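Whiteboard transcription, Tuesday session. T.W. wrote the C-alpha cells on the left side:
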C-alpha cells in the first residue's frame, strides 16, 4: 500500500514554550545583536536520517522556530528574520512545494495569537508573484494583528530572494528615473536601502545558519553586507534557544571593524598568534 501523502493538516503537536526553564547568559549591556537573521536549514536531512519523509522535518521545525523566537526575546534581540521559503525553493518537487505553502500558511494561522501575546510584530519580506494567495492573506493578517507590538520584530521571509529583492528595488528606482521623479545622481546607498521589501529593516548583525552548510543561499544579501556569520551543525528541527544563545556568544567574541582599523602595537613585540 502506498503511504498517504502528507498534508499540512498532519502537523505534529509542538513542544510548549516554557519561559522559566532556561535563561540566557547575562550579556553586557548593548552588546546583544540587534538584528539576527537565520537560515532555518536541515529539515529534510533530519527527517531522512530518521527514516521519515522530508515534510516530517518541516513539521518538526515549527517548534524550533517558536523556541528560538522565545530565546531571542529573552536575550533582548529586537529583530529576527527567518528564511522560510526562498525564490529557489520552487525548484523542489511539486508535493514538497505544495506542503511548504500550506504549512507556512497554517503555522502563521496557528501561531499568530501566541506571537501577538508575546509582543511580537510579524512582518513579511518576499515577492507576491507565484506565492499562494492564502499564504499572502495569512501574512497580511498577522502583520495587521501585530502591527503595534514592539518586543521583537519577526520578519518571515517567504518567497524571498536577495537578488530579486535588489532587482525589485532597482526597478522601482528605474521607474522613478524614467518618469522624471528622480535624478540618477540622487541614487545612493540610503535610497536603495529604502526600496528594499522592508525599508526600515536594520542591517543584519548576526547571520546564523543551521545544518552545517556554509553559504547564504541568497538570504538578505544587501542587509548582511557587514553581518557576522555563524554556522552551526545542528539541524533545524533540533535547534533551540540554546543554539541561538551559543551563536550570540560567538558573535560577542568577534571584532567588528567595518573597514576601520586601530593601531595597537603589541608591547612585547610578539606577533598575534605566536
Ligand atoms: C530547510 O530545510 C527548510 C526549507 C528550505 C524550506 P531543507 O528542506 O532545506 O532541509 P535539507 O537542507 O534538505 O536537509
Ligand atoms: C535556504 O535553504 C532556504 C531556506 C532555508 C528557506 P536551502 O536548503 O533551500 O538552500 P540550499 O539549496 O542548500 O542552498
Ligand atoms: Mg536545505
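and on the right, the sequence the group agreed on:
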Amino acid at each position: 500500500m502506498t503511504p498517504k501523502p502528507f498534508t499540512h493538516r498532519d502537523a505534529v503537536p509542538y513542544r510548549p514554550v516554557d519561559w522559566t526553564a532556561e535563561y540566557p547568559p547575562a550579556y553586557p549591556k548593548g552588546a546583544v545583536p540587534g538584528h539576527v537573521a537565520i537560515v532555518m536549514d536541515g529539515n529534510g536531512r533530519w527527517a531522512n536520517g530518521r527514516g521519515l519523509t522530508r515534510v516530517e522535518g518541516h513539521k518538526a521545525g515549527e517548534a524550533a522556530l517558536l523556541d528560538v523566537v522565545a530565546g531571542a526575546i529573552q536575550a533582548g534581540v529586537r529583530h529576527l528574520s527567518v528564511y522560510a521559503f526562498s525564490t529557489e525553493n520552487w525548484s523542489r518537487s511539486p508535493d514538497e512545494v505544495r506542503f511548504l505553502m500550506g504549512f507556512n500558511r497554517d503555522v502563521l494561522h496557528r501561531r499568530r495569537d501566541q506571537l501577538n501575546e508575546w509582543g511580537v510584530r510579524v512582518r513579511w519580506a518576499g515577492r507576491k508573484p507565484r506565492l499562494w494567495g492564502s499564504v499572502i492573506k495569512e501574512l497580511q493578517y498577522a502583520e495587521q494583528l501585530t502591527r503595534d507590538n514592539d518586543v521583537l520584530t519577526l520578519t518571515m521571509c517567504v518567497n524571498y530572494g536577495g537578488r530579486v529583492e535588489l532587482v525589485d528595488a532597482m526597478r522601482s528606482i528605474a521607474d522613478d528615473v524614467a518618469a522624471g521623479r528622480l535624478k540618477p545622481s540622487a541614487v545612493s546607498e540610503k535610497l536603495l536601502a529604502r526600496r528594499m521589501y522592508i525599508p526600515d529593516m536594520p542591517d543584519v548583525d548576526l547571520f546564523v545558519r543551521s545544518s552545517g552548510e556554509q553559504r547564504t543561499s541568497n538570504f538578505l544579501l544587501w542587509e548582511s553586507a557587514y553581518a557576522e556569520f555563524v554556522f552551526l551543525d545542528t539541524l533545524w528541527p533540533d535547534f533551540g534557544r540554546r543554539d541561538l544563545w551559543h551563536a550570540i556568544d560567538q558573535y560577542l567574541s568577534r571584532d567588528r571593524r567595518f573597514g576601520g582599523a586601530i593601531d595597537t602595537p603589541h608591547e612585547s613585540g610578539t606577533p598575534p598568534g605566536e
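Someone added at the bottom: The beta strands are 35-39, 79-86, 120-125, 152-160, 206-209, 228-231.
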